Amino acid sequence: MDLQPHRFPASATPVADLLDTIRRKRTKDIDWRRGRAFCLIYHPGDEREHAIKQVFDQYYADNALNPTATPSLAELESEAVSMCADLFHADADACGNITTGGTESILLAVKTARDWAGKNKPHIKRAHAVVPESVHPAFMKAFQIMEVDYTAVKVGGDYRADVAAMERAIRPETILLVGSAPSYPFGVIDPIADIAALAQQRGLLCHVDACIGGFMLPFLSDIGYDVPAFDFRVAGVTSLSADIHKYGYSPKGASVILYRSHDLRRHQFSLYTKWAGGIYASPTITGTRAGGNIAGAWAALRTIGREGYVEMAKATMAATEQLKQAAADIPELKLMGRPDMSIVTVQSDQIDVYMLADELNKKGWHFERQQLPPSLHFTVNYIHRDIMPEFIADLKSCIATVRDQRLAQLGNKLQTSVVKGLSKILPDGAIARLQKNSTPDINNENKAAMYGMMGALSGTDDLEQIVLDFLDTIYTAKPE
Questions:
Q1: What is the rounded distance in angstroms from the CA atom of residue 328 to the CA atom of residue 172?
Q2: For the segment 116-131, what is each residue's pLDDT rounded down to a tens digit?
Q3: Which residues does 335 contact at the CB level (< 8 Å), separation at least 6?
Q4: Residues 6+ apart with CB under 8 A from 65
Q5: Exposed site from 158, 191, 340, 358, fewest CB < 10 Å?
Q6: d(CA 313, CA 214)
Q7: For 131-169, how does the pLDDT look when each residue is reduced to its tens digit (9 = 90+)?
Q8: How many other β-carbons are positioned within 10 Å of the β-carbon of residue 205?
């Protein structure tokens, strides 16, 4: 009996057969090229994509691990970082690196802060950070990996960081404060100037997570939007992360981590000089570094340029304003906060928004479902510039469908209430064990009840076990 459902290939498979297989598999993927995905994908248009890919292909097989082997990649990376530092108003002493994505940039920012504190605050045995609860979970991953404690404070009524609450959370072990520009869930910029001033006053580092907004916010001022300073113009900001593969429209994955000084960045590097294989020095988390991603990031910045980014920002915000106006005009929807850029989040006290999500999915639209409270999250970008009227028409139609499904909405509410009640009386892990044999189906069109249950269990051991089982199932190969 075979131990694995897929045997290691004994011989080469013709590329035509491989492409046929891919075409079959991709029928389940989101149709982002037609602008029907408000998440995960950022596309600059076919012409710009073609230009960027030509440079990317030049470095398809190259590895930037050893800069002496590929000095051209070291030059491209340094030039791209310098261009980004200029965009974010940093002076000549600023520096940084290109990473694989926002998570790696955040990991490096936390590592740098921890190691900086080890040198400058040696009395601290275990470092601590203060973040708003809206901060990206990549920080929680970073804190876990880097063994840094943290306090996540509640946001204010405007969904922005509460600086007074952050100040109260500071401890003698605190080394780092974090603000988002903007936060992913709500698209609002935290009061960076106040957070940075507090950090400077207390002798702490201050990181700005501009991973999603870094290559959109700088261009909004050019088209008449009032964007508060969030970058190195703000005294006290010591580091900043921004994803070039989001609104910078480079190939996945490329992000940039920037520091105000070379002295600070030195704490980012990893070095080992006692290895039989030679001196091992790495500027980022990874060893092997994909040359194509670095070259693609450089190419995107150079191919598009400020003029192109402003043009795309203008088209993106025009589409965003259409969606915001629709949310304001539709009685069943409520816009959450006042987003500072092209992120729109809606909730409802009249209909089940998870059922609305199911109906929109059936029409081929994809986006994020959020919790606490239940809400739908739309990231608008350049690819949506012409499709918003079609989406809004489908949105209204789906709302009417959900509104008429009162019995199903009631059933979902009852199921959520039962789960919430059971979580209070059953021992930890009991619900997860009951769900153990219920294999999740990611192709199931009706997910409203599942998301309602997860919202009811948010933060519990039960939900963690259910999600772990889900991940384990998804990433286990199935027979052909």
A1: 45
A2: 999 999 999 999 999 9
A3: 324, 327, 328, 344, 345, 346
A4: 282, 287, 288, 289
A5: 158
A6: 12
A7: 999 999 999 999 999 999 999 999 999 999 999 999 999
A8: 28
User: Lowest mean pLDDT: which of 6-10, 223-227, 283-287, 321-325?
Assistant: 6-10
Q: Residue 229: how many CA atoms within 13 Å on its side-chain side?
A: 14
**Model confidence pLDDT, tens digit, residues 407-430:** 554 555 545 544 444 444 444 554
Whole-number Å distance between alpha carbons of 246 and 341: 13
Residue type for position 18? L
CB atoms within 10 A of CB 332: 18
Cβ-Cβ contacts under 8 Å for 237 (sequence gap 6 or more) = 192, 196, 206, 207, 208, 230, 231, 260
pLDDT of residue 421: 46
pLDDT band (50, 70, 90) for residue 465: low
**Any bridge partners for residue 206, and if so which?**
177
Taking CA 104 as the corner, what is the angle to CA 99 and CA 109, rounded to the nearest 5 degrees? 100
Written in H, E and C, the secondary structure of 242-279 is EECCCCCCCCCCCEEEEECCHHHHCCCCEEECCCCCCC
**Least trusted range by pLDDT, from 12-16, 74-78, 170-174, 443-447:** 443-447
Residue 175 has pLDDT above 90, yes or no: yes
Q: Which domains does the chain have, with CATH numbers?
A: 54-301 (3.40.640.10), 406-474 (no CATH)
Question: What pLDDT, on the 0 to 100 scale, is given for residue 35?
Answer: 87
The first and second tokens of residue 291, run together, are 């040359």
